[in-house]
Amino acid sequence: MTDAPLADEPASFEVTDSTVVYEGAVWDVRRDTIAYGDSSMVREYIDHTGAVAVYAEDDEGRVLVIQQYRHPVRVRDWELPAGLLDMEGEDHLTAAKRELGEEADLEADEWEPLVRYNTSSGGSDEFLQVYRARGVRATSSAFEREAEEADIVKRWVPRSDLVAAILDGRLHNSGLIVAVLAAEAADAAEARARR
Predict the structure, then answer these.
(1) Which of 28, 81, 140, 155 is 20 to 30 A removed from 22 (C-alpha atoms)?
(2) Does 113 share its domain with 151?
(3) What is the pTM of this model?
(4) Is 40 found in the same domain as 117?
(5) Count of domains forming the chain
């Protein structure tokens, strides 16, 4: 047993075959054959572009959440402004700023990485980078939205209400849950460090 800090360990095994078995409108399904130990195994997973989300706070410490329809789960869920890394050459922070503008008609003065996590390590190679945005204000013009983004509902909510809703099982969006609890933990750690 070691006293090293707990961390995921990078590992790589030879991929002997890799095929896109379904090419989708947003992402693909890939089938890999991997040499593992003395044999091989086949794994299928969502081959994802990656994504960003924005944990935006106003001057009162409230968090911006948006509600939109999510077809796979048949729910209008509450979530953070978020989007795919699907623009060639766009870095994560630029994508996060773009998504905040596109989904909430907002921009921010201060940006910092909050948390990065894999959304489903057994079924997708997607990593979601969440940024914390402060100094938030309205953009000079509204973005033209379509499809499930056309009827987005925006709400500013105290973080304590979000924590309570998460722990009560009323909110289920993984990006929202991870970001809210990460911000709660980060602020608690910062408060302890100041004592």
Answers:
(1) 81
(2) yes
(3) 0.89
(4) no
(5) 2
